[in-house]
Design goal:
It contains five helices and no strands. With 133 residues, it is mostly helical.
Length: 133
């Protein structure tokens, strides 16, 4: 049988391309969008954002000095505890800032992905046509 418009091979290739485009503009795009949510959630909980927010002013590594009986020992304990809390605050703020930067980065990547997603099949066809001619 000659290859042409009536051959079963042409029909199969056409249906494969149609199925790909149907997936690309349907479930594929939906999965790309859902992957953003998964990445954001993984980053949010990976950096322990809720726990860091709750314990923002907690002492660093629970290092707490207990004051003795004299006023000097109490003052020293108070200063030690204040320094421990300041160190804890700074470390937690840096970690929260890093989490925020990564979350914003994922959002920028996702917006780019969602904008470029529908253009990829069109670009592939255009590149094939340009390469052939």
């Amino acid at each position: 049988m000659k290859a042409g418009l009536n051959s079963p091979s042409w029909y199969n290739e056409y249906m494969l391309a149609l199925a790909f485009l149907q997936w690309w503009y349907g479930p594929g795009w939906f999965r790309a969008w859902n992957s953003l949510g998964a990445r954001l959630k993984r980053t949010y909980y990976g950096f322990s954002v809720p726990q860091l927010s709750r314990t923002l002013f907690a002492p660093w590594r629970r290092i707490v000095s207990l004051g003795g009986g004299s006023l000097g020992e109490r003052m020293r304990a108070m200063v030690d505890n204040l320094v421990s809390r300041c160190v804890g605050l700074v470390v937690r703020l840096i970690t929260l800032f890093a989490a925020a930067v990564i979350i914003v980065w994922w959002i920028i990547i996702a917006i780019g992905q969602l904008v470029i997603w529908p253009l990829v099949p069109i670009a592939a066809i255009m590149l094939i046509v340009r390469g052939v001619s």
